[in-house]
Amino acid sequence: MAGKWPKQFPALAILLTLLANWNDSGGEWAMKWVLRILGVLIALLVIAFVFFRTPDTDAAEMRVKYGSEPSQFVELSNGMIVHLRDEGPRDGLPVILLHGSNADLHTWQLWAEALRNEYRVIRFDQRGHGLTGSAVDDDYTLDGFTSDVGLVADALGLEQFVLGGNSMGGWISAGYSLENEDRLAGLMLVDSSGAPVKREGSTPIGFRIAQTPVLRDLAKYFMPRSIFENSLKQSVSNQEIVTEAEVDRYWEMARYPGNRDATMKRFRTPRVTYNAEQVAGLDLPVLVMWGEEDALTAVTGAHWYSEHLPSDTLVIYEGVGHLPQQEHAEQSAADVLTWLGTLSGSVLEEGGVEEPVG
Prior knowledge:
Blueprint: H1 10-20, H2 27-52, H3 59-66, E1 71-75, E2 81-87, E3 94-98, H4 109-115, E4 120-124, H5 142-155, E5 161-166, H6 168-180, E6 184-190, H7 205-211, H8 213-219, H9 225-235, H10 244-254, H11 259-268, H12 276-280, E7 286-291, H13 300-308, E8 312-317, H14 324-327, H15 329-349
Parallel strand pairs: 3-4, 3-5, 5-6, 6-7, 7-8
Antiparallel strand pairs: 1-2, 2-4
Helix pairs in contact: 1-2, 4-15, 5-6, 9-10
């Protein structure tokens, strides 16, 4: 194998041959050719950069396209301006929903439409994502993400709420609950990361690139739309949700000013996992929902959480991948409504949500 690979790269093979003969009488001649070849390679890289570099999207255009009503741009006490949507009755039980890696608040649209008649549904673009953009403190650790949850709740005047998240958003939700359990009426983990289990199946191409150092650095400049389309197709089982508009939004939001640098920094940041003792200490109602065919966060994660949580409801959907809230929206939203119905009365009795006046 070692003897064959230079044949696949002719320019490299020539360079190796020239260098191997460096000490011959033609050393000066070889040096000239090495420099010429390197010059050609550099020129090709410059041309590729100029013609194939994917530029950032225009922030103002993206706000018009994805940040219209009922979107708000709220400044948190840490100085970060967050893009969020806050819908439903003000006296309803608040439900905060956190999207996954490289996604945005729009992934919860179908759930928001189903829940907002009875509940106050809040979703926001997390740091380094969507129209929120990069973090003011450049912190993409778990603590940075969980801090934002509390600050959003503070900014909206919430005392107690239900917190739920998908994938990375579930990891953040679990992390927040471990430190702020008294502020939660319940927790929802939807195909959540954070469990100490191995991934099953192949990793979508976009995630493989982001996890590979050299490719990750190149991806800052070259982000073809096809990568996002293929990654989304590989993440879900229900291919009907892979629409042109959906792919466009992922691609455009990834190129929102500041987001591509934030993404690379986030993937360079070590991701913590939880242990059984931590999860077993959560004394609150938890809804665990999972797509049985999830290739990103294996369904074994659902069983791990369910095994160690003291009070949980486990729902697994056949024929569904990483995004049940979109792939199986109607049924998953109905299951959430049923579960939330068991919480609402007790939260009102404890004074977690203000009763309407008048």
